[in-house]
User: Fold this.
Amino acid sequence: QVQLAESGGGLVQAGSSLRLSCAASGVVDVGWFRQAPGKERAFVAAMNRVDGNTEYADSVKGRFTISRDNPRNTVYLQMNNLKPEDTAIYYCAADSQGGTCSGSCMHYYASLKTYDSWGQGTQVTVSS
Assistant:
């Protein structure tokens, strides 16, 4: 499996920004998910490593941006204008078999079944 390590979480006030990082041990597509207390893990964003195509959950469109540094095998999640409802543990995930998708890929990247490797998670807390 691919090893993933998230960093960059923290406690911030509403309206602030944070940047999360996900360092991967291999060249893979990476998705970001989050899980709030008492809720299921939910898709946030993902990026195709080849063509750079991105997908976002509606709740973060216009506020979050996913990007990657290919030489470093690191994927970033820039989170701006954070809201209290963004409070959650954020996880990055990957398919260690190197699967990918081109074209309309929301269903593919948003499915938990796409991924077999997960990071340990990083806590993001947004106070009002």
